[in-house]
Amino acid sequence: MARDWVDWHTGYADPESTISRRLRAVQEQIRLALDAAPPGRIGVVSMCAGEGRDLLEVLAEHPRAADVDARLVELDPVLADRARAAASALPSRVEVIQSDAALTDTYTGAVPAQLVLFCGIFGNISDADIATTLAASPEFTAPGGVVVWTRHRREPDLVPQILDWFAAAGFEPLSVSPPDADYGVGAHRNTGPGRPLALGRRLFTFQR
Ligand SMILES: C[S@@+](CC[C@H](N)C(=O)[O-])C[C@H]1O[C@@H](n2cnc3c(N)ncnc32)[C@H](O)[C@@H]1O
Predict the structure, then answer these.
(1) Is 206 a pocket residue for ligand 1 (Cβ < 6 Å)?
(2) Which of 75, 78, 91, 119 could form a disulfide with 66 if both were Cys (CB 3.0 to 4.6 A apart)?
(3) What pLDDT does residue 1 have?
């Protein structure tokens, strides 16, 4: 049976839940990426954005919010509506698309972005799909741009492999949460030239 992702989001009601603490770690990396973004427009893409809490709560108080042009992609209509409602109060331009985030065509016109969020995905797709998604990162991320990502640390811990896949794609680590945290959050910068988006591809399939 498919997972109830609206129910999953109720975990954010408890500020000490694992996902709430993970959210704060993600938001710290988003804040740092926005602080460091070059002057002018800041393109942002969020895959499987859920309610968009990570980005939207940071934008609510970030001095660069008015420079942000974001595309959030979320399949669930209830969550997409919540993200739209939260975004409506911001000075940023935020487009919430209710669509399949795994399809590369969904990102036409929004990439390469300065900030790319892969949050809440890598615990729900196969290792092969994670590798495929990371290999495509240079198509999503502008040169010098940042990917913020998450993955749980349960055994077998895939984070070391994820770091290797980022390195192979030309990304350097900016931050990786400590191994003993009960979540995994990282930020990687694209040190390469980037690559045009290859259309017509599926990057991953959610396993539940
Ligand atoms: C673990 S939640 C993460 C939500 C958000 N990124 C966060 O970290 O709070 C996974 C999200 O992916 C969405 N999702 C699952 N498959 C998807 C797909 N193929 N395209 C877009 N969204 C999808 C679910 O509806 C859910 O909101």
Answers:
(1) yes
(2) 91
(3) 62
